Amino acid sequence: MxxxxxxxxxxxxxxxxxxxxxxxVETLPGGLxxxxxxxxxxxxxxxxxxxxxxxxxxxxxxARIMFVGEQPGDQEDLAGQPFVGPAGKxxxxxxxxxxxxxxxxxxxxAVKHFKFTPRGKRRIHQKPNMGEIRPCRWWLEHELGIVxxxxxxALGATALxxxxxxxxRLADFRGRAVAFGDGQQLYTTVHPSYLLRIPDxxxxxxxxxxxxRDMRQIRKLAYPD
Length: 225
Prior knowledge:
Helix content: 25-40%
Number of strands: 9
Structural class: alpha/beta
Strand content: 15-25%
Strand order of the largest sheet: 4-3-7-9-8
Low-confidence stretches: 1-18, 21-25
Mean pLDDT: 89
Shape: globular
CATH class: Alpha Beta
Largest sheet: 5 strands, mixed
CATH architecture: 3-Layer(aba) Sandwich
Number of domains: 1
CATH superfamily: Uracil-DNA glycosylase-like domain
Distance between the termini: 31 Å
């Protein structure tokens, strides 16, 4: 059996103070390899029609930390692996600064297919909508239920929305841990692609340092000893 997050819609929830509660859902038998194989044939939303392939999560099945991003980008879509493009390199650098080993964390996305608009020879990233996030949450539930991470990290607003199952302001959650799921915690920070889009060098340096501080806090939460 696996689980999902059924969040309250009351005033406390809208303020970002409510604890999502876990509810049981049927899951596929087996471990991550079996679920990954099933996801290869996913047609739960229309995005599979234009994407090269499903990009499932990667990492140890017993990882303490699960990072959840938005969706695969152009390079991830071609490689079939999450966070291997420019944003992935930014994440890797921040993890190294925080003394976190990427091979020991689980990395995935809220949406498993690349959504884009063709522009000449380029494929321009398009933000997924709720009609694409909700169907793909089925796979995220399986990942959460199998890995059972101590700490779930939302990288950006789309990941936060997918995990909370409602639209939330990133600023209301960034930099703090909240109760989540079955005795777990949810920590929110920006998506590393945000850092790549900052035009001013000084601002980029400041925001990158803040992102690294978030990674250090994530390490402390996952490895308190």
